[in-house]
Design brief:
The complex is a heterodimer.
Chain A: E1 9-10, H1 17-21, E2 28-33, E3 39-40, E4 55-60, E5 63-72, E6 84-91, E7 98-103, E8 116-124, E9 127-134
Chain B: E1 9-16, H1 27-41, E2 51-54, H2 71-77, E3 84-87, H3 96-106, E4 112-120, H4 121-126, E5 141-142, H5 157-172, H6 176-190, H7 204-209, E6 212-214, E7 217-218, E8 227-236, E9 247-253, H8 273-282, E10 293-296, H9 301-310, H10 319-323, H11 342-346, H12 352-363, E11 376-381, E12 388-393
Parallel strand pairs in B: 2-3, 2-4, 10-11
Antiparallel strand pairs in B: 1-8, 1-9, 4-8, 6-7, 9-12, 11-12
Helix pairs in contact in B: 6-9, 8-9
The chains are: A mainly beta, B alpha/beta.
């Protein structure tokens, strides 16, 4: 996916590297608790469920559901064409595992709550941003 | 509950600078105007002021026009001699310095605290220095909680709140016309407020046909950037000396129990106001039925709806039907709402315009916008992961 627009991108740290660079291997990766199997996002030094500190990166399926969305029409950033869709996507593996993202690869008007989506990545320098597109499968 | 510590405090004075779109006055200049009016209104002189508090305090990395002058600047400009001072972003939203001032006077750290909030966002935006979060930054890299939002071109609170509004519509059938009732009510009330930015009537047709910002929010769902300063004096109850009756702080709402970010809050139909409101009612024997006037944060129309539900004026999911048609929330309705025009029409004074208006209403000096003779007012500020509220009584 190529882009000419200006995008702010995250500063990659040791704590977030698995998430922001997992896309280099086509994988959406979250911290995972070795003890209670809970996924954690954003990264934290402790599992909020069982307080274990034995956490390690673990890829998920990359499939999820649109929990909510907004079609942005305001040209906040003149280099980005509008409209575009901002959404919160819930990842299949865990109800509370959620991230903000863009829904791409479809007409913005087609996006709806409950829509099935799958991840695709867009690279910017050393960062692989997880975006989501309709998942027909 | 009668010994809740905030009841040691009263609001003894109020003041507000000129409000406008392009005042081209410094934030300190505006703050001094509002502060001197509030000090005088409380029957005090600057020598009586022994505390100072503000949200969010000095500029730092915040967007231009957002923060206003820091407390040291105001203390120096007025040569105040204070025993207690604070400024800061973290806490129960924009009302944090008011609540902290209540605690300070209750604890004996001060007798009379000058609390202010100043914005010069209209001037900042007019000069092209402010768009959305992070835009115009020299550094393309983002850190902290914004790294989870800004890379997706989600630059504005309009986008972040819209996600919740959309989900609320999905779950409960809330409509744009219902959100429009909040915007139209605000505009109707603004007609009676000489300082309001927009005072012309707004029709439902105009509301629905306005350009879309970020669905479901059109232009009139979003508040109006402005320049202005508001100040109040929080005094120890027995020390209040002003000509107007001091307004009692009956209860404060300060809680946050959910995940404190825009993208991770668990319930996508509520925000932190849910917890702050629950805390408020846990600290008083009053109930929502006792409230005569409500001044509820309206950075975006849906936030007001969420506050109505959080505070129990409407059941969860029933905020839309509650405001529909606008009769119930009108000046002569059962719950007059945002009587000065709120932020949607009067201007985005970041909750302090609403606080000032609650005091005006309780004093009965609202003129063309006075909503009867209210004895209990609720003030709420904040959206997303920040929220704070106050119950004020005559």
């Amino acid at each position: 996916m190529t882009e000419t627009e200006f995008r702010l991108i995250p500063e990659v740290t040791p704590e977030t590297e698995h998430f922001w660079r997992g896309g280099a291997n086509g994988e959406l990766v979250f911290l995972h608790c070795e003890s209670c199997r809970n996924y954690i996002h954003p990264p934290s030094p402790v599992c909020p469920v069982c307080l274990s500190c034995e956490l390690s990166p673990e890829p998920v399926s990359g499939r999820g559901t649109v929990a909510t969305f907004t079609i942005n029409h305001q040209p906040w950033n003149p280099s980005v064409p509008v409209p575009y869709v901002i959404a919160l996507v819930e990842i299949d593996e865990q109800a509370s595992l959620r991230l903000m993202t863009n829904i791409v690869g479809c007409d913005p008007e087609e996006v709806h709550v409950g829509m099935r989506v799958r991840v695709r990545f867009t690279q910017h320098d050393d960062v692989y941003l997880p975006l989501f597109e309709p998942d027909e499968s | 509950m009668n010994d809740s510590i905030e009841r040691s405090a009263v609001i003894s004075g109020i003041g507000q600078s000129a409000i406008g779109r392009r005042l081209n006055r410094s934030d300190l200049d505006l703050t001094v105007e509002a502060s001197l009016e509030a000090i005088g209104d409380a029957g005090l002189t600057r020598d009586d002021i022994d505390g100072i508090a503000s949200y969010p305090g000095g500029g730092g990395a915040l967007p231009p026009g957002f923060s206003g002058p820091g407390t040291p600047e105001v203390q120096d400009a007025l040569r105040l001699k204070v025993g207690w001072h604070m400024g800061g972003l973290e806490g129960p939203a924009q009302l944090a310095p008011v609540i902290n001032a209540c605690l300070a006077v209750a604890a004996g750290l001060a007798n009379h605290v000058l609390v202010y909030r100043t914005v010069t966002e209209a001037t900042a935006q007019g000069s092209g220095r402010r768009g959305g979060m992070g835009l115009g930054a020299q550094d393309r890299r983002v850190r902290g909680i914004f790294q989870w939002m800004l890379p997706y071109h989600a630059y504005s609170a309009a986008n972040w709140v819209a996600l919740y509004a959309q989900r609320h519509m999905h779950e409960f059938g809330t409509t744009r016309e219902q959100l429009g009732a909040i915007a139209i009510n605000a505009r109707r009330n603004a007609a009676g407020n000489p300082k309001a930015i927009f005072r012309e009537p707004l029709t439902m047709e105009e509301y629905l046909n306005a350009r879309m910002i970020t669905t479901p929010f059109g232009l009139y769902d979003c508040d109006v950037p402005c320049d202005g300063s508001t100040a109040v004096i929080v005094s120890r109850a027995e020390r209040a000396e002003g000509a107007s009756p001091p307004l009692r702080v009956n209860a404060v709402g300060t809680a946050i129990r959910g995940r404190p970010t825009w993208d991770q809050w668990e319930d996508l139909t509520t925000m932190a106001m849910r917890d702050a409101a629950a805390q408020l009612w846990s600290r008083t024997e009053l109930t929502p039925a006792d409230v005569d006037v409500a001044e509820l944060y309206d950075g975006f129309s849906w936030l007001t709806l969420a506050w109505l539900e959080a505070l129990g004026f409407a059941a969860k999911g029933e905020g839309g039907p509650f405001v529909e048609g606008g009769k119930r929330i009108a000046l002569d309705g059962e719950l007059p709402l945002n009587t000065s025009g709120g932020q949607l029409s009067a201007g985005r004074l970041h909750g302090f315009g609403l606080l000032h208006e609650a005091c005006v209403q309780l004093r009965g000096i609202g003129g063309d916008r006075q909503a009867g003779a209210p004895e209990v007012a609720v003030v709420a500020a904040g959206g997303g992961p920040i929220a704070g509220c106050l119950l004020l009584t005559r």
